[in-house]
Specification:
- This protein has 83 residues and is mainly α.
- It has helices at 14-23, 28-37, 44-51, 59-68, 73-77.
- The protein is globular, with a radius of gyration of 12 Å.
Length: 83
C-alpha cells in the first residue's frame, strides 16, 4: 500500500494528545480504557506511538480521542510545540 505521508511523522495530533491527556491528569492506560468504552480499541502502547508520532491515526480514532479528551477535532489538529 502506498503511503501518502511524506515525512517522518505518521500523524499530526500526537503532541496535542499528550498535552491534553496530561492536562486532564490521565495516563495512557486511562485514555486507552476510555476509548475502549466507546468501542475504539487502541492499546496503551499505541497511545504512546501516537504521541511520539510513529503511528497513524484513523478518522474513527481521531473522533473518539477528541471525545474522550473533551475537545473538538479542530483543537486536536491545531499546531502544537509539544513533542
Amino acid at each position: 500500500m502506498a503511503r501518502i505521508i511524506d515525512s517522518e511523522k505518521m500523524n499530526i495530533i500526537g503532541g496535542n494528545v499528550k498535552k491534553y491527556r496530561k492536562l486532564r491528569k490521565m495516563s495512557q492506560q486511562m485514555l486507552s480504557n476510555k476509548l475502549e468504552l466507546l468501542g475504539v480499541y487502541v492499546c496503551r502502547g499505541s497511545i504512546s506511538r501516537i504521541e511520539d508520532y510513529s503511528r497513524t491515526v484513523t478518522d474513527i480514532e481521531l473522533f473518539a480521542i477528541a471525545e474522550v479528551l473533551n475537545l473538538s477535532v479542530e483543537e486536536l489538529l491545531e499546531k502544537t510545540t509539544v513533542n
